[in-house]
Amino acid sequence: MTKQLVIIPTYNEIENIHSIIRAVLRQPVDFDVLVVDDNSPDGTADAVRELMAEHPERVYILERPGKQGLGTAYLAGFAWALERGYHYVIEMDADFSHNPDDLPRLYKACAEDGADVAVGSRYVSGVNVVNWPLGRVLMSYFASVYVRMVTGMDVRDATAGFVCYRAEVLYTMELDKVHFKGYAFQIEMKYTAMLCGFRVEEVPIIFMNRKLGTSKMNSSIFGEAFFGVLKLRWWGWTRKYPQKGSKRLEA
Questions:
Q1: What is d(CA 158, CA 121) in angstroms, rounded to the nearest whole number?
Q2: What are phi and psi of 9, to 5 degrees?
Q3: What are phi and psi of 194, to 5 degrees?
Protein backbone atom coordinates (compact mmCIF):
# COMPACT_ATOMS: atom_id res chain seq x y z
CA MET A 1 0.00 0.00 0.00
CA THR A 2 1.42 3.36 -1.03
CA LYS A 3 1.60 6.39 1.25
CA GLN A 4 1.04 9.93 -0.05
CA LEU A 5 1.88 13.15 1.78
CA VAL A 6 0.88 16.74 1.03
CA ILE A 7 3.26 19.30 2.55
CA ILE A 8 1.79 22.74 3.28
CA PRO A 9 4.20 25.43 4.54
CA THR A 10 2.52 28.16 6.60
CA TYR A 11 3.11 31.54 8.09
CA ASN A 12 -0.01 33.38 9.29
CA GLU A 13 -2.56 31.24 7.43
CA ILE A 14 -5.21 31.06 10.14
CA GLU A 15 -7.88 32.15 7.65
CA ASN A 16 -7.17 29.25 5.29
CA ILE A 17 -5.64 26.38 7.21
CA HIS A 18 -8.77 24.57 8.42
CA SER A 19 -10.42 24.72 5.01
CA ILE A 20 -7.36 23.68 3.01
CA ILE A 21 -6.62 20.66 5.22
CA ARG A 22 -10.24 19.48 5.11
CA ALA A 23 -10.22 19.88 1.32
CA VAL A 24 -7.12 17.68 1.05
CA LEU A 25 -8.54 15.02 3.37
CA ARG A 26 -11.76 14.65 1.39
CA GLN A 27 -9.99 13.77 -1.87
CA PRO A 28 -10.59 10.29 -3.33
CA VAL A 29 -6.89 9.48 -2.82
CA ASP A 30 -5.84 9.07 0.83
CA PHE A 31 -3.44 11.95 1.31
CA ASP A 32 -1.85 12.66 4.66
CA VAL A 33 -1.06 16.29 5.47
CA LEU A 34 2.09 17.77 7.01
CA VAL A 35 1.96 21.46 7.90
CA VAL A 36 5.38 23.09 8.31
CA ASP A 37 4.69 26.20 10.36
CA ASP A 38 7.25 28.93 11.01
CA ASN A 39 5.97 30.08 14.40
CA SER A 40 2.95 31.93 13.01
CA PRO A 41 1.83 34.53 15.58
CA ASP A 42 -1.80 34.29 14.41
CA GLY A 43 -2.41 30.82 15.88
CA THR A 44 -2.07 28.75 12.71
CA ALA A 45 -0.31 25.94 14.61
CA ASP A 46 -3.09 25.77 17.22
CA ALA A 47 -5.65 25.42 14.43
CA VAL A 48 -3.64 22.56 12.94
CA ARG A 49 -3.48 20.79 16.29
CA GLU A 50 -7.27 20.91 16.48
CA LEU A 51 -7.45 18.94 13.25
CA MET A 52 -4.70 16.60 14.42
CA ALA A 53 -6.98 15.63 17.30
CA GLU A 54 -9.76 14.85 14.81
CA HIS A 55 -7.47 13.00 12.35
CA PRO A 56 -4.53 11.66 14.41
CA GLU A 57 -3.26 9.36 11.64
CA ARG A 58 -3.70 11.84 8.78
CA VAL A 59 -2.68 15.33 9.94
CA TYR A 60 0.74 16.29 11.31
CA ILE A 61 2.66 19.45 12.10
CA LEU A 62 6.34 20.35 12.05
CA GLU A 63 6.92 23.57 14.00
CA ARG A 64 9.96 25.74 13.48
CA PRO A 65 11.13 28.67 15.63
CA GLY A 66 10.71 31.40 13.01
CA LYS A 67 10.60 32.34 9.32
CA GLN A 68 13.37 30.45 7.54
CA GLY A 69 12.22 30.53 3.93
CA LEU A 70 9.96 28.47 1.72
CA GLY A 71 12.73 26.22 0.48
CA THR A 72 13.89 25.20 3.94
CA ALA A 73 10.28 24.47 4.92
CA TYR A 74 9.90 22.06 2.04
CA LEU A 75 13.31 20.49 2.64
CA ALA A 76 12.37 19.85 6.26
CA GLY A 77 9.08 18.36 5.08
CA PHE A 78 10.81 16.16 2.50
CA ALA A 79 13.19 14.79 5.12
CA TRP A 80 10.24 14.12 7.45
CA ALA A 81 8.44 12.26 4.66
CA LEU A 82 11.41 10.11 3.68
CA GLU A 83 12.04 9.13 7.29
CA ARG A 84 8.46 7.84 7.51
CA GLY A 85 8.41 5.90 4.26
CA TYR A 86 6.11 7.99 2.08
CA HIS A 87 6.12 7.01 -1.57
CA TYR A 88 4.78 10.26 -3.07
CA VAL A 89 5.24 13.77 -1.72
CA ILE A 90 3.37 16.86 -2.94
CA GLU A 91 4.12 20.54 -2.41
CA MET A 92 1.08 22.78 -2.05
CA ASP A 93 0.23 26.33 -0.94
CA ALA A 94 -2.13 26.96 1.95
CA ASP A 95 -4.12 29.74 0.33
CA PHE A 96 -6.17 27.80 -2.29
CA SER A 97 -4.15 29.22 -5.18
CA HIS A 98 -3.61 25.50 -5.83
CA ASN A 99 -6.91 23.68 -6.15
CA PRO A 100 -6.99 20.62 -3.86
CA ASP A 101 -9.17 18.87 -6.45
CA ASP A 102 -6.09 18.77 -8.73
CA LEU A 103 -4.15 16.66 -6.24
CA PRO A 104 -5.36 13.30 -7.62
CA ARG A 105 -4.25 14.31 -11.14
CA LEU A 106 -0.74 15.17 -9.97
CA TYR A 107 -0.57 11.94 -8.01
CA LYS A 108 -1.82 9.90 -10.99
CA ALA A 109 0.83 11.41 -13.26
CA CYS A 110 3.52 9.90 -11.02
CA ALA A 111 1.77 6.80 -9.66
CA GLU A 112 0.25 5.57 -12.94
CA ASP A 113 1.48 7.57 -15.94
CA GLY A 114 5.24 7.24 -15.57
CA ALA A 115 6.33 10.69 -14.40
CA ASP A 116 8.93 11.01 -11.67
CA VAL A 117 8.01 14.65 -11.05
CA ALA A 118 4.58 16.06 -11.91
CA VAL A 119 4.33 19.86 -12.09
CA GLY A 120 0.99 21.60 -11.74
CA SER A 121 1.57 23.98 -14.64
CA ARG A 122 -0.02 27.38 -15.22
CA TYR A 123 1.53 27.75 -18.68
CA VAL A 124 1.63 24.36 -20.40
CA SER A 125 -1.74 25.02 -22.09
CA GLY A 126 -1.77 28.80 -22.41
CA VAL A 127 -1.82 31.18 -19.44
CA ASN A 128 -4.17 29.79 -16.81
CA VAL A 129 -4.02 32.35 -14.01
CA VAL A 130 -7.09 33.95 -12.40
CA ASN A 131 -7.24 37.26 -10.48
CA TRP A 132 -3.53 38.06 -10.68
CA PRO A 133 -2.49 41.61 -11.66
CA LEU A 134 -1.28 41.70 -15.25
CA GLY A 135 2.20 42.77 -14.21
CA ARG A 136 2.61 39.77 -11.97
CA VAL A 137 1.33 37.39 -14.66
CA LEU A 138 3.84 38.78 -17.13
CA MET A 139 6.69 38.62 -14.60
CA SER A 140 5.92 35.00 -13.74
CA TYR A 141 5.42 33.91 -17.36
CA PHE A 142 8.59 35.53 -18.67
CA ALA A 143 10.54 34.25 -15.67
CA SER A 144 9.74 30.74 -16.86
CA VAL A 145 10.69 31.68 -20.44
CA TYR A 146 14.02 32.99 -19.11
CA VAL A 147 14.61 29.76 -17.17
CA ARG A 148 14.02 27.65 -20.28
CA MET A 149 16.35 29.82 -22.35
CA VAL A 150 19.21 29.68 -19.85
CA THR A 151 18.94 26.09 -18.62
CA GLY A 152 17.45 24.33 -21.63
CA MET A 153 14.94 22.73 -19.27
CA ASP A 154 11.77 21.74 -21.13
CA VAL A 155 9.36 22.88 -18.41
CA ARG A 156 7.01 25.76 -19.21
CA ASP A 157 6.26 26.58 -15.57
CA ALA A 158 9.66 26.24 -13.92
CA THR A 159 8.69 28.39 -10.91
CA ALA A 160 5.55 26.38 -10.09
CA GLY A 161 5.06 25.40 -6.45
CA PHE A 162 2.40 22.70 -6.93
CA VAL A 163 4.53 19.60 -7.52
CA CYS A 164 4.38 15.85 -6.89
CA TYR A 165 7.62 13.92 -6.40
CA ARG A 166 8.22 10.22 -6.28
CA ALA A 167 10.25 9.52 -3.13
CA GLU A 168 13.14 8.15 -5.19
CA VAL A 169 13.65 11.60 -6.73
CA LEU A 170 14.02 13.30 -3.36
CA TYR A 171 16.27 10.55 -2.06
CA THR A 172 18.54 10.61 -5.12
CA MET A 173 18.84 14.40 -5.30
CA GLU A 174 20.72 14.68 -1.97
CA LEU A 175 18.53 17.32 -0.37
CA ASP A 176 21.30 18.61 1.88
CA LYS A 177 22.99 19.96 -1.25
CA VAL A 178 20.02 22.03 -2.43
CA HIS A 179 21.35 25.58 -2.45
CA PHE A 180 18.49 28.04 -2.86
CA LYS A 181 15.91 28.73 -0.17
CA GLY A 182 13.59 31.30 -1.78
CA TYR A 183 11.90 31.61 -5.17
CA ALA A 184 14.81 29.93 -6.99
CA PHE A 185 14.28 26.81 -4.87
CA GLN A 186 11.45 25.64 -7.12
CA ILE A 187 13.60 26.06 -10.22
CA GLU A 188 16.55 24.26 -8.65
CA MET A 189 14.42 21.27 -7.64
CA LYS A 190 13.09 20.73 -11.17
CA TYR A 191 16.43 21.35 -12.85
CA THR A 192 18.27 19.00 -10.50
CA ALA A 193 15.67 16.29 -11.00
CA MET A 194 16.16 16.60 -14.76
CA LEU A 195 19.96 16.46 -14.46
CA CYS A 196 19.60 13.34 -12.31
CA GLY A 197 17.79 11.65 -15.19
CA PHE A 198 14.23 11.84 -13.87
CA ARG A 199 11.18 12.42 -16.05
CA VAL A 200 9.49 15.77 -15.35
CA GLU A 201 5.96 16.13 -16.73
CA GLU A 202 3.54 19.06 -16.59
CA VAL A 203 -0.13 18.72 -15.67
CA PRO A 204 -2.28 21.73 -16.64
CA ILE A 205 -3.96 23.54 -13.75
CA ILE A 206 -5.78 26.82 -13.20
CA PHE A 207 -3.99 29.00 -10.65
CA MET A 208 -6.23 31.16 -8.45
CA ASN A 209 -4.91 34.22 -6.62
CA ARG A 210 -5.50 33.98 -2.86
CA LYS A 211 -8.75 35.41 -1.50
CA LEU A 212 -7.82 35.41 2.20
CA GLY A 213 -4.60 36.31 3.97
CA THR A 214 -1.54 38.13 2.68
CA SER A 215 0.84 37.10 -0.09
CA LYS A 216 4.45 36.42 0.94
CA MET A 217 5.78 37.32 -2.55
CA ASN A 218 8.16 40.26 -2.95
CA SER A 219 10.56 41.63 -5.57
CA SER A 220 13.75 40.46 -3.81
CA ILE A 221 12.97 36.79 -4.39
CA PHE A 222 12.74 37.44 -8.12
CA GLY A 223 16.27 38.85 -7.96
CA GLU A 224 17.46 35.64 -6.32
CA ALA A 225 15.82 33.65 -9.10
CA PHE A 226 17.35 35.76 -11.91
CA PHE A 227 20.93 35.27 -10.79
CA GLY A 228 20.24 31.83 -9.37
CA VAL A 229 19.34 30.48 -12.79
CA LEU A 230 22.76 31.48 -14.10
CA LYS A 231 24.37 29.62 -11.21
CA LEU A 232 22.24 26.56 -11.90
CA ARG A 233 23.37 26.50 -15.53
CA TRP A 234 27.01 26.75 -14.46
CA TRP A 235 26.57 23.93 -11.97
CA GLY A 236 24.91 21.87 -14.67
CA TRP A 237 28.10 22.16 -16.68
CA THR A 238 30.58 21.65 -13.86
CA ARG A 239 28.99 19.35 -11.27
CA LYS A 240 28.39 15.63 -11.30
CA TYR A 241 24.83 14.77 -10.32
CA PRO A 242 23.69 11.38 -8.94
CA GLN A 243 21.66 9.48 -11.50
CA LYS A 244 18.27 7.81 -11.36
CA GLY A 245 18.65 4.25 -10.10
CA SER A 246 22.06 4.91 -8.53
CA LYS A 247 20.75 4.87 -4.98
CA ARG A 248 18.60 2.26 -3.28
CA LEU A 249 15.64 3.75 -1.43
CA GLU A 250 15.03 1.85 1.75
CA ALA A 251 11.46 0.72 2.30
A1: 8
A2: -80, 140
A3: -65, -45
